Amino acid sequence: MTSKKKSHPSVQQFKEFVKKHPKLVQEVRKGNKDWQEVFEDWYLLGENDVVWKQYRDGEQEQEDDKKDSKADFMSQMLSAVKKMDMNTVNHHITNMSSTISTIQGLFDQFGSSKGTNQQATSNSQNPFTFRKD
After folding, report:
1. Positions of the region Disordered (predicted)?
2. pTM
C-alpha cells in the first residue's frame, strides 16, 4: 500500500510561490542557488519582499503593476473626494445646470422657428404629390 504523504502547509505555500516566480527555478537549475537557501530566504523575508521581484515572470509583473496603479488611482480619487468642499461642488453643479437650461432654451427657440420654415418649404416641393384626374 502506497499512500501519499501530505506536505506541510508552508511547503505547499512555497510551491505556489515558486510557480509565480519561474525565473527562480532557472537560477536553481543553473546552480546559482539551492532549494534550501531559497526556502529559508522565502520563509524569513516573506513572498512580498523586493528581492523576489527579479524572479517574477514578465506577465506577473505587469499584472502586479496594473493592480498597483489601480490602487494608486483609487487612493488618489478618494483623497480628492475628501478634499472637496461640498458647498463649492453644489454651487458649480447649479451653475452648470442653469447654463445647460439656457442652451436648451436657445436650441428650442431657434429650432422651432427653423422648423416652421422647413415645413412651409417642404409642402410646396413635395415630390410625392398626386393629381386628381
Report:
1. 111-133
2. 0.38
